[in-house]
Every structure is written in structure tokens, then in C-alpha cells.
Give the backbone structure.
Amino acid sequence: MNFVEELRWRGMIHDIMPGTEEHLLKGASSAYVGIDPTADSLHIGHLVGVMMLRHFQRAGHRPIALIGGATGMIGDPSLKSQERNLLDEDTLKKNQEGIQKQLEKFLDFDANNPKAAQLVNNYEWMKNYSFLNFIRDVGKHITVNYMMSKDSVKKRLSSESNVGMSFTEFSYQLLQGYDFLHLYKNYDCKLQMGGSDQWGNITTGTDLIRRSVSGEAYGLVCPLITKADGGKFGKTESGNVWLDRRYTSPYKFYQFWLNVSDADAEKYIKIFTSLGQDEIQALLEEQAAAPHLRPIQKRLAQEVTCMVHSEEDYQAALEASGILFGNATSEALKKLDEETLLAIFDGLPRFEISKKELEGGIKALDLLAEKTNIFPSKAEMKKMTASGGVGINKEKLEAFDTIIDASSLLNDKYIYIQKGKKNYFLLIFK
């Protein structure tokens, strides 16, 4: 498999240094992507770089994931309008452990594989490197003029906010350049990959390698992922879409991909899955013939949810997705955990009721027409119940005087009400 050609048809190349493709065609090589450990989970914005490493390994090369334990203590100024808070060593260690578990779902770290992925942390080679030695060994090879010419520096210095740039941030490109030099010397790594915002840092590294050890090194960057409507990719009203289920449930994760626009789905299915060109082309033709069925979104959501979480989580998300408007049963509703249940019913009208009302049971008529205003009158409640238009927890209410008690609660707290075909409510008992 030609790695560069694979990325090219997937739309994952923004810029590439001359000679990169030829170098990779000569035989197996090593490449790295840097990951900033600012949290103990990756979010989907990181997935582009991770997928580049995944395709790299599939093409017969060795991927290296570099955790920026040292550079994470400083902060990359690229595309940042202001300096961020610095992280302490304990936090960085915790974050690295979380990230490593997630990377194992995408890359093969099996030591028996000659092209096994490797995880390195630049803190290991930076922690004992003195400042004097660093500026002597590294700083002398890169001029201030060269560093000032980088877009990330120029944008910050010309910013209207007058925030400026600390020397700490200014030195970031030297530190990242040294990472590349270290991996070049110790891991025979000759290629660095990343997002297009990293081009300046990557070229600093290749220049440092050329000037200090007369070596040939290469760089390849992918486009920054955007949404067709101009919004920021991976951001929702509640913030980032995370890979860790503690921060983004598998259901919400699945829904994010399922609800992307047609234009975005056509782009994302190439970038965020390992599906082949023929299979994706078939999906594109299927989508063109019946766009209302959204086959690309469905397959995209399936592939990414299974890859990040599991087949079981995907099936659970699929089943949960049919609960609100589909033909799901009350049993499916009862199996939902509280987080997924609340995610499904997010936005529904809610009524809070004292749990004491359920002691000894309460008639459905009184619950829905007196304790709440779901029905404006008991007469209307009786009439709709008789016509089969009232549901409790996905089961048709057979009689208006049915007794509702604590056994009807979902997660010991909720009851889901359907009124007619288009009105849904959530009762919360406290």
C-alpha cells in the first residue's frame, strides 16, 4: 500500500515536503505524531493524527505516538490567541495513561510485530537536559530571524489583543524540533506528521536535523478539519466530543456522527474510517440515489463508534436511537443507564414530582391531569386513553385508572410519557 497515495485519495494531505513519497516507497520507515496531553482523554479532533498513524502502520511502516509531557508543560502557541495554563507532572502522567489506553484501540503495540507502534514521552529526554546545554546544542542552529518568520509567531505578535508571547511559548518550536532530532537519532524516525497548523514546527525540526547532523527528514500535514457550515469540528453545545465514555457517552458519540451533514459525512467517512475506496464509492452512490436514508452517516457512525468503543456499545446506541420515535419496547427502555436515558430525552418537557406521590400508587388519570398539566382536563385524558393514544414507558395505557407506583420508575427516578403521536414528556420523581 502506498501510504501517501492512500492519504491523498482520502483528502488527508494539505502539504508534503518534496521527497517524502519517494522516501516511503524505498521501504519500511518510521513516523511520529505529537499528542498534547492536556486531558486524560483524546477528543475527536485528535483522531485525524491517530488515523494517519493507523494508515501508516497498515502500509507496513512503524508509527510512533509522542506524548508531549515536556512540551505540554509549556503550550504550543499555534492557533492559540493566548497562553494557557501549565500542567504539573502528576497531571501529565495521569493524562498519558488515559491516552495510551485509547491509542491501543487504533494501533498495534504488540511487541511481536516488527512494525509495532511505540509510545514515547518527550519528558523522558527533556527532564534532565539543562538549559545551558539545550541552548548550546540546539539554539545555535536556529536563528531568531527564522523563528520570527513562523506564522504562529507572527500572528500572535500582530494580534490586536496585545497579549504578546512569552519566551516560554517562543521556545516551543525549538523544543518540538529537538523532539524530531531525538527521534531521528534514537528511533530512525525520518517523518513527522500532524495538522496543517504544525507545519512551522515540523519544518523547524527538519531544518534542525539538516543543520546539526546533515540528515534528511520529511514532513506531511493534513488539513484542519472543518464543518461545511463553517462551525468548528468536534464541538457541540456541551463542548468537545471525547473518546472517553466518562465525558461523552457512547450514545452521544454515535449521535454526533449520525447527525453530520451530507457534505461533511462524505468527507469524514474517508478520514475517520479504514473503509476501502470501492466500498466508500458504493456508499456515495447509495447516498446519491436515496439521500433521505442517510447510508453514509449510518455507516460512519457505526465504524467510528465500534472503533472507539465496541460493537456492543454501537448496538446499544442503535437500539437507544429508536426509543424516542421508533418501535422500541419498554424492555429496551428499562435497560438504559441514566446517562443515556437523559441524553435520549434531552429537550423533552419535564415535570418534577415528589416520590411520595407514588407511595401506595396513584391513578394515571390523577398523575397526568392533576399532578402535571400534560392533559388540561381529565375528560381529554380519558378520551385519548380510550383511543390508545397514551403510552407509559413505551407501553400503551389500557385504562385511565391504571395504578402507577414505584415499579414503573426507570432508573428508580423517571417515567416516560407519550401523548398522541408527537408529544413526549419526562416525569422526574424526587
Q: What stands out?
A: The mean pLDDT is 90. The longest strand covers residues 423-429. The radius of gyration is 27 Å.
